[in-house]
Amino acid sequence: MPCMSLECEQSAALARKIRLHALHMIHRAKSSHLGSAYSMADLLAVIYSRILRIDPQNPYAPDRDRFVLSKGHACAVLYAVLAEQGFFPKEWLQHFYQDGARLAGHATHVGVPGVEVSTGSLGHGLPLACGMALVGKRDRQSYRVFALLSDGECDEGSTWEAALFAPHHQLDNLTAIIDYNQIQSLGTVKEVLDLEPFAAKWKAFGWAVREIDGHDYAQVENTLTKLPFEPDKPTCVVAHTVKGKGVSFMENKLLWHYRSPDANEMALALAELGDGE
Amino acid sequence: MRGAFFRALLTLAERDHRINLIVGDLGFGVVEEFARRFPDRFLNAGIAEQNMTGIAAGMALSGKIVFTYSIANFPILRCLEQVRNDVCYHNANVKIVAVGGGLAYGSLGATHHATEDLAIMRSLPRMVVVAPGDPDEAEAATQALAAHAGPCYLRLGRAGEANVHSGELDFRLGKAITVRQGHDLTLISTGGMLETAVQTAELLHQSGLETRVLSMHTVKPLDGNTVRAAARETGAVFTLEEHSVDGGLGGAVAEVLAESGEGAFTFRRFGLPSAFSSNVGTQEYLRSQHGLTAEAVASAITSTLGKNSTFAATTG
What we know:
The complex is a heterodimer of chains A (277) and B (316).
Chain A: H1 6-29, H2 34-39, H3 41-51, E1 66-69, H4 75-85, H5 125-138, E2 145-150, H6 157-168, E3 174-180, H7 189-193, H8 198-205, E4 208-213, H9 217-224, E5 235-240, H10 255-258, H11 263-273
Parallel strand pairs in A: 1-2, 2-3, 3-5, 4-5
Helix pairs in contact in A: 1-3, 1-4, 1-11, 3-4, 3-9, 5-6
Chain B: H1 2-15, E1 19-23, H2 32-37, E2 42-44, H3 49-60, E3 65-71, H4 80-89, E4 94-99, H5 117-122, E5 128-130, H6 135-147, E6 152-155, E7 177-180, E8 185-189, H7 194-206, E9 211-215, E10 218-220, H8 224-234, E11 236-244, H9 249-258, E12 266-272, H10 283-289, H11 294-304
Parallel strand pairs in B: 1-2, 1-3, 3-4, 4-6, 5-6, 8-9, 8-11, 11-12
Antiparallel strand pairs in B: 5-10, 7-9
Helix pairs in contact in B: 1-6, 3-4, 7-11
């Protein structure tokens, strides 16, 4: 999607950087979930550079916006964006997933500034975010809470418990963003456990819902700067995305939920993404 | 114990505005006063324990002290992973309160028997596990848990238990209370079995055995020093709990004693078998079915110690 603005150019540049970081991290680590990381890379680039009110120099400020990555397995791009934004040295990324490293293979808050909560088992993020949002509402605090969920974790009952809770308590300071890349661990969402009509489900639960292209920087930014969509309602953004987005041979391929790129695939991917780290 | 808990919680909530109570749509007739007096700090999460626990962790990470409240296994087992990951891993200041520990809901059936909770909770890193022995201990435990910054599990009995202690209570987390002095054997109890332990000691006294009775209200961290001293000084240690003998108080004490190097001593656990109760009945009935009466325990202790005394029940 061509950029028509400076903001869009900046988001695109950040997204490219964090995709490159994640590629090197996952290749070095021989780890998984590159496809899951890439489907949300554009969302994270916009969210971290344009939306969140956060200060890398003061990562635990009480009035900070909270970002909960519920799909903790896709943490490589989260770590990458946090490093790019200055929460911790980029050098840490080199040791992702290695013995003795700080950065584990699922989002881990321990000793990692900027990671709000540790996740990895699915279905935990939205309830945690609801608790943070409830305190924000009751104490009349200005911070907002964002939770980024995978589509697959909408199989979890706990996600829907929280989906019932947030509208009931009018948590309009809470935004759930769903990375709807349509592929989960062993098949497509449609094959494994169909979520459709997906946006309608959230709407029926009482959320203010919009569907967007999760790779259109301007659309992501425009959508997330108009929160809440409706007063007294939590916001749900169903972001239509492509698993493995950014590297043609990874796109929409179940294989890249798990596969770690070999040397040949690295070279091809680097050529497509352009440039080294 | 339930009444003592709520009395303590209301007093704490008056003093400390960080204290919140979340219930899983249970507590009819007992949670209303908190809800009325502190509406902005009360929450009924509905019948959704996973969400309740995740919310509690999220609130705690936003500066609150959060008590979750439900009955029997509901606040720990349905949501065990939320307890482990969201609460314990994040060291969230969440206090999980279960009313109806052990066989308190006996007649309701095995789904409502909380008989593995101590074993499960004490295996979790950072979790402080407390089962008070009487209402006074329950009140003191509530205060102590609120003052402890981190995850806690409070296993309560039901309502209407008698107080076992008299006078000033020296309640400290992780420190057993010596309820009765004795040099012939030690009987360590946790939770609502304390009254039975004291009655057992009285029966044994009648047959010439002096029992040291310890109320081990904190199962984790366990007061290992007091356990080792009991083995060393009395030569015989017995544990008593309304819980499976696997992994609960008896298991915790056995771990300490096996590594204690204290030499020869007698050890035996009294509790429930690792089985689902096939009988229907009240707490009192089910206890008697499993040998958890003062008479049965006293008889088993004398038999273990090579003395032949049997104790007949004096009341139904």
